[in-house]
Amino acid sequence: MSATADHAETNLAARLGFQTDMVVQEIGYDEDVDQELREAIEAVTATELVDEDYDDVADAVVLWFREDDGDLTDALVDTTTYIEDGGYILLLTPKTGRDGYVEPSEIGEAATTAGLSQTKGVSVGKDWTGSRLVTPKTAAKKR
Q1: Residue among 102, 129, 122, 118 at smallest CA distance from 34
Q2: Is the pTM of this model over 0.90?
Q3: Residues of the chain with pLDDT under 70
Q4: N- to C-terminal Cα distance for the chain?
Q5: At what angle do helices 104-113 and 72-80 cross, to 10 degrees?
Q6: 41 close to 24: Cβ distance less than 8 angstroms
Q7: How far apart, in whole angstroms, are the C-alpha atoms of residue 29 and residue 35?
Q8: Please, which residues bridge with residue 50 across strands?
Q9: What angle do CA 49, 37, 64 make, to 5 degrees?
Q10: What is the pLDDT of residues 102-119, one digit of tens each?
Q11: What 8-state DSSP symbol labels residue 32?
Protein backbone atom coordinates (compact mmCIF):
# COMPACT_ATOMS: atom_id res chain seq x y z
CA MET A 1 0.00 0.00 0.00
CA SER A 2 1.29 3.44 -0.83
CA ALA A 3 1.79 6.18 1.72
CA THR A 4 -1.03 8.13 0.03
CA ALA A 5 -3.46 5.19 0.33
CA ASP A 6 -2.46 4.66 3.95
CA HIS A 7 -3.04 8.36 4.69
CA ALA A 8 -6.45 8.22 2.95
CA GLU A 9 -7.52 5.22 5.07
CA THR A 10 -6.35 6.90 8.28
CA ASN A 11 -8.22 10.06 7.31
CA LEU A 12 -11.33 7.93 6.70
CA ALA A 13 -11.07 6.49 10.21
CA ALA A 14 -10.71 10.02 11.63
CA ARG A 15 -13.65 11.29 9.53
CA LEU A 16 -15.74 8.44 10.94
CA GLY A 17 -15.14 9.90 14.40
CA PHE A 18 -12.40 7.65 15.74
CA GLN A 19 -9.97 9.46 18.03
CA THR A 20 -6.81 8.74 20.02
CA ASP A 21 -7.26 6.41 23.01
CA MET A 22 -10.81 5.34 22.12
CA VAL A 23 -11.78 1.79 23.04
CA VAL A 24 -13.32 0.29 19.90
CA GLN A 25 -15.05 -3.07 20.09
CA GLU A 26 -15.35 -5.13 16.92
CA ILE A 27 -18.29 -7.48 16.37
CA GLY A 28 -18.88 -9.75 13.40
CA TYR A 29 -15.23 -10.15 12.39
CA ASP A 30 -14.67 -12.71 9.62
CA GLU A 31 -12.15 -13.27 6.86
CA ASP A 32 -14.06 -10.93 4.52
CA VAL A 33 -13.66 -7.74 6.59
CA ASP A 34 -11.67 -4.76 5.30
CA GLN A 35 -8.25 -5.15 6.94
CA GLU A 36 -7.09 -1.70 5.82
CA LEU A 37 -9.99 -0.05 7.65
CA ARG A 38 -9.26 -2.09 10.79
CA GLU A 39 -5.61 -1.01 10.67
CA ALA A 40 -6.59 2.62 10.05
CA ILE A 41 -8.88 2.61 13.10
CA GLU A 42 -6.08 1.14 15.21
CA ALA A 43 -3.66 3.74 13.86
CA VAL A 44 -5.97 6.65 14.71
CA THR A 45 -6.96 5.34 18.14
CA ALA A 46 -3.44 4.10 18.97
CA THR A 47 -5.08 1.01 20.50
CA GLU A 48 -5.98 -2.44 19.22
CA LEU A 49 -9.60 -3.27 18.50
CA VAL A 50 -11.17 -5.36 21.26
CA ASP A 51 -13.26 -8.39 20.36
CA GLU A 52 -16.75 -9.60 21.22
CA ASP A 53 -15.53 -11.02 24.55
CA TYR A 54 -14.51 -7.59 25.90
CA ASP A 55 -16.25 -7.23 29.27
CA ASP A 56 -16.48 -3.45 29.64
CA VAL A 57 -18.18 -0.68 27.68
CA ALA A 58 -16.51 0.75 24.60
CA ASP A 59 -16.41 4.26 23.14
CA ALA A 60 -17.50 2.87 19.77
CA VAL A 61 -18.44 -0.45 18.19
CA VAL A 62 -17.57 -1.59 14.68
CA LEU A 63 -20.31 -4.02 13.65
CA TRP A 64 -19.64 -6.05 10.48
CA PHE A 65 -23.07 -7.31 9.38
CA ARG A 66 -24.11 -9.46 6.43
CA GLU A 67 -27.63 -10.38 5.30
CA ASP A 68 -27.31 -13.94 6.61
CA ASP A 69 -26.01 -12.86 10.06
CA GLY A 70 -29.52 -12.91 11.56
CA ASP A 71 -31.84 -10.07 12.51
CA LEU A 72 -30.24 -6.65 12.13
CA THR A 73 -32.57 -5.00 14.65
CA ASP A 74 -31.62 -7.57 17.30
CA ALA A 75 -27.93 -7.12 16.49
CA LEU A 76 -28.20 -3.33 16.88
CA VAL A 77 -30.16 -3.55 20.14
CA ASP A 78 -27.56 -5.97 21.52
CA THR A 79 -24.72 -3.74 20.33
CA THR A 80 -26.10 -0.66 22.11
CA THR A 81 -25.38 -2.40 25.43
CA TYR A 82 -21.66 -2.40 24.58
CA ILE A 83 -21.25 1.34 24.08
CA GLU A 84 -20.57 4.12 26.55
CA ASP A 85 -23.04 7.02 26.76
CA GLY A 86 -22.07 9.29 23.91
CA GLY A 87 -20.57 6.40 21.94
CA TYR A 88 -21.63 5.22 18.51
CA ILE A 89 -21.91 2.19 16.27
CA LEU A 90 -20.24 1.99 12.89
CA LEU A 91 -22.42 -0.52 11.03
CA LEU A 92 -20.54 -2.01 8.08
CA THR A 93 -22.45 -3.95 5.43
CA PRO A 94 -21.42 -5.33 2.03
CA LYS A 95 -21.91 -2.97 -0.92
CA THR A 96 -24.60 -3.49 -3.54
CA GLY A 97 -23.98 -6.64 -5.57
CA ARG A 98 -21.67 -8.21 -2.95
CA ASP A 99 -22.53 -11.38 -1.02
CA GLY A 100 -24.42 -10.47 2.13
CA TYR A 101 -25.72 -7.11 0.83
CA VAL A 102 -28.26 -5.46 3.17
CA GLU A 103 -30.89 -3.09 1.75
CA PRO A 104 -30.53 0.53 2.96
CA SER A 105 -34.23 0.54 3.88
CA GLU A 106 -33.61 -2.44 6.20
CA ILE A 107 -30.74 -0.56 7.85
CA GLY A 108 -32.89 2.54 8.35
CA GLU A 109 -35.80 0.54 9.76
CA ALA A 110 -33.58 -1.53 12.07
CA ALA A 111 -31.75 1.57 13.34
CA THR A 112 -35.03 3.36 14.09
CA THR A 113 -36.50 0.31 15.84
CA ALA A 114 -33.31 -0.03 17.92
CA GLY A 115 -33.62 3.63 18.98
CA LEU A 116 -30.68 4.82 16.89
CA SER A 117 -30.26 7.67 14.41
CA GLN A 118 -28.19 7.37 11.27
CA THR A 119 -25.88 10.38 11.08
CA LYS A 120 -23.52 9.52 8.27
CA GLY A 121 -23.15 6.98 5.46
CA VAL A 122 -19.80 6.37 3.81
CA SER A 123 -18.10 4.07 1.33
CA VAL A 124 -15.52 1.95 3.15
CA GLY A 125 -13.10 0.16 0.86
CA LYS A 126 -14.12 -1.69 -2.28
CA ASP A 127 -16.54 -4.13 -0.65
CA TRP A 128 -18.10 -2.38 2.36
CA THR A 129 -20.32 0.58 3.11
CA GLY A 130 -20.66 2.13 6.55
CA SER A 131 -23.46 3.78 8.51
CA ARG A 132 -22.66 5.76 11.64
CA LEU A 133 -25.43 5.21 14.18
CA VAL A 134 -25.92 7.13 17.44
CA THR A 135 -28.46 7.12 20.24
CA PRO A 136 -30.89 10.07 20.03
CA LYS A 137 -29.38 11.54 23.22
CA THR A 138 -25.95 11.49 21.54
CA ALA A 139 -27.39 13.04 18.37
CA ALA A 140 -28.97 15.85 20.42
CA LYS A 141 -25.64 16.62 22.15
CA LYS A 142 -23.96 17.18 18.77
CA ARG A 143 -26.35 19.96 17.75
Answers
A1: 129
A2: no
A3: 1-10, 137-143
A4: 38
A5: 40
A6: yes
A7: 10
A8: 25
A9: 70
A10: 999 999 999 999 999 988
A11: T
